[in-house]
Design brief:
It comes from Brevibacillus fortis. It holds the Pfam family ABC_tran. The chain has two domains: 2-200, Rossmann fold, CATH 3.40.50; 215-275. It contains nine helices and 14 strands. It has helices at residues 40-48, 88-98, 104-113, 127-139, 157-174, 185-188, 209-215, 223-229, 267-275, and strands spanning 2-11, 14-24, 28-33, 55-60, 63-64, 74-77, 145-149, 177-181, 194-199, 202-208, 216-222, 235-241, 244-250, 261-264. It has a six-stranded mixed β-sheet with strand order 6-7-8-3-9-10, sandwiched between helices. Strands 2-1-4-5 form a four-stranded antiparallel β-sheet, with helices on one face. It has a four-stranded antiparallel β-sheet with strand order 12-13-11-14. Strand 7, helix 5 (157-174) and strand 8 form a beta-alpha-beta unit. The structure holds adenosine-5'-triphosphate. Adenosine-5'-triphosphate binds at residues 11, 14, 16, 34, 36-42.
Length: 278
């Protein structure tokens, strides 16, 4: 459905993405992770046709995408999106007038769940409430692809929990491709089905989160024993303390022995091992 093939995006001397290829071919919740400046927003904007690639090809449903051919079926919610200063319920009505597929009932229902005052004007809403309105406009857009760039910025803990529940409901009811970029790794891991990690403009990892649950673990013990046990496996990081070592592995599980301790790596530790500096 979404494909980037050998895509490079330069901003003058700065590199946004470098020779990047990936295909997202089934509905579900995709979580996009990367350090600051890794290239997440660049990736999302290329899919939405807000940027032109410097080279390579971006397609959505087989159609080439660029700034002159923005894909109809993609709704991009920027973290800093702004809207006309009208009452929130009028924003929803306008969205319906402009896009007949906009699901105003779904938007109203979600707003009630978030306890949004629909009579409030957009500019009178707090930062978190504005982000919520932007998110609702995306989730109710009924487009095949919904992109949320840093949606939980400004949400309190309870609103974030409601937001993740909403993502899950929307995913179950509507079967969309939902791509969420975030820095709150452990929180999103509850709902994300696929994980994309971008590092310095390159795709570092694309995997099912269930695979990470099964294949990401640490092995701690005497250096020689650990090194022998993990020989040939994909080691993504290591820490040494005295004669002991902890190796972080992303590969098939190993047999447990009394000589070492094997523990699962949470998504956050997995991410840090993969893209963190030594
Ligand atoms: N308009 C621009 N002009 C010049 N350089 C840019 C521009 N937009 C992005 N970049 C550069 O491209 C690289 C990727 O930026 P991008 O915004 O895609 O990263 P990001 O992963 O979304 O970061 P963050 O998590 O901090 O939002 C960075 O080095 C950034 O400085």
């Amino acid at each position: 459905m979404i494909s980037l093939s050998n895509v490079t995006k330069n901003y003058g001397k700065n590199i946004g993405l470098r020779n990047f290829s990936v295909t997202l071919d089934s509905p579900g919740i995709y979580c996009l992770l990367g350090r600051n400046g890794a290239g997440k927003t660049t990736f999302l904007k290329l899919i939405a046709g807000h940027h032109n690639a410097s080279s390579g090809k971006v397609t959505v449903n087989g159609n080439p995408v660029d700034m002159l051919h923005m894909p109809e079926q993609v709704h991009f919610v920027a973290s800093d999106a702004e809207h006309f200063n009208m009452r929130i319920k009028d924003l929803f009505k306008t969205a319906k007038e402009l896009h007949s597929q906009f699901d105003i009932h779904f938007a109203t229902e979600i707003s009630q769940r978030f306890k949004l005052d629909l009579n409030k004007k957009y500019e009178q809403a707090s930062f978190g409430m504005k982000v919520m309105v932007n998110t609702i406009l995306g989730m109710a857009s009924n487009k095949a692809v919904i992109i949320l760039d840093e949606p939980v910025l400004g949400f309190d803990a309870i609103t974030r929990k409601n937001f993740y529940d909403l993502l899950q409901d929307c995913n179950e009811q509507k079967q969309k491709v939902i791509i969420v970029s975030t820095h709150l790794i452990d929180e999103i891991s509850r709902v994300a089905e696929k994980l994309l990690i971008i590092d310095q403009g390159e795709l570092k990892l694309y995997a099912d989160t269930t695979d990470i649950d099964e294949m990401a673990y640490s092995v701690t013990g005497p250096a020689k024993v650990v090194e022998q046990l993990t020989q040939g496996l994909h080691i993504i990081g290591a820490k040494k303390v005295g004669g002991f070592v902890s190796q972080y592995i992303f590969d098939k599980p190993i047999e447990d022995t009394d000589m070492v301790m094997v523990s699962p790596l949470g998504l956050q530790d997995f991410f840090i091992s993969l893209v963190g500096e030594e």
